[in-house]
UniProtKB/TrEMBL annotation:
It is an enzyme of class 3 (hydrolase). Signal peptide: none annotated. It holds the Pfam family Thioesterase. Belongs to the thioesterase family. SUPFAM superfamilies: alpha/beta-Hydrolases. It comes from Staurois parvus. This is oleoyl-[acyl-carrier-protein] hydrolase. Its EC number is 3.1.2.14. It comes from the Eukaryota. Residues 17-242 form the Thioesterase domain. PANTHER family: S-ACYL FATTY ACID SYNTHASE THIOESTERASE, MEDIUM CHAIN, THIOESTERASE.
Length: 254
């Protein structure tokens, strides 16, 4: 489990586990640090995907199914132990949703809440563009990254750093660009679903996420661009929102 899961703040008596799915090319550390921001009732797990951090020598997943196989195989015993919620940003929105659907369809398990961020619903036409970003040249790709305003310019100009950073980012983008999902005839989930997004990010089709669950649905906008969540004020707001929803579900649970 330790290969996939980064948990910096162990809370064996926690009522709920919050499992965080990284953005494209992202590691586990950002969300793993959230463990210090929640109270003792929540234990934060942050996923460490192949091809980065301590798993840098492992090959990247070649499909969403391959990625989901590992995530569900490793997490499944833990998910039977206690309640859990999912959070994912951008690429992590799709991987967390796909994991939730697989768990429900194959194992009868469902998160108490799904928190998605910075992404259109998987079935929205707004997701698709004529140019796949994973196929851009490195120069064009770096220009696009600069436009998202989430990566420091000094890092973008560091060729050695980019040689490490670009491969997992492009590999994840290729997965999500090939992830085709059609609108289901009926909602595939019954848990609550909350969307977060930055007010200055490119427009995302957030309302379409409501098609995917019969549970409560909410949207929260926070100031900033695609990586709005890196701002400490927004990070604290996110944690407060998530805590509130988890606490409300705990009241219903008991």
């Amino acid at each position: 489990m330790d290969k996939l899961v980064n948990c910096l703040y162990r809370r064996p008596d926690a009522i709920t586990r919050l499992i965080c799915f990284p953005w494209a090319g992202g590691g586990s550390l950002f969300n793993a640090k959230w463990g210090r921001l929640f109270d003792d009732s929540v234990e934060v797990y942050s996923l460490r995907l192949p091809g980065r951090e301590s798993r840098s020598r492992e090959p990247f997943p070649q499909s969403f199914d391959q990625l989901l196989d590992e995530i569900t195989d490793v997490l499944l015993p833990l998910l039977y132990e206690k309640r859990f919620a999912f959070f994912g940003h951008s690429f992590g929105s799709f991987s967390s949703f796909a994991t939730a659907v697989r768990l429900k369809e194959k194992h009868g398990l469902e998160p108490i809440h799904l928190f998605v961020s910075g992404a259109s619903a998987p079935h929205s036409p707004l997701r698709y563009s004529s140019q796949k970003r994973s196929e851009l040249s490195d120069e064009e790709f770096l220009k696009w990254m600069a436009s998202t305003q989430g990566t420091p310019s000094e890092l973008l100009q560091n060729k050695e750093a980019m040689q490490i950073f670009l491969p997992p980012l492009k590999a994840d983008l290729k997965l999500v660009e090939n992830f085709v999902y059609e609108k289901p005839p009926t909602p595939v989930l019954s848990c609550g679903l909350t969307c977060f997004d930055g007010t200055e990010d490119v427009p995302h089709d957030l309302t379409a996420w409501k098609d995917l669950t019969s549970g409560d649905f909410n949207i929260h906008m926070l100031p900033g661009g695609h990586f709005y969540l890196k701002e400490s004020t927004n990070e604290n707001s996110l944690v407060q929102y998530i805590s509130r929803y988890i606490e409300a579900s705990e009241i219903d649970y008991f």
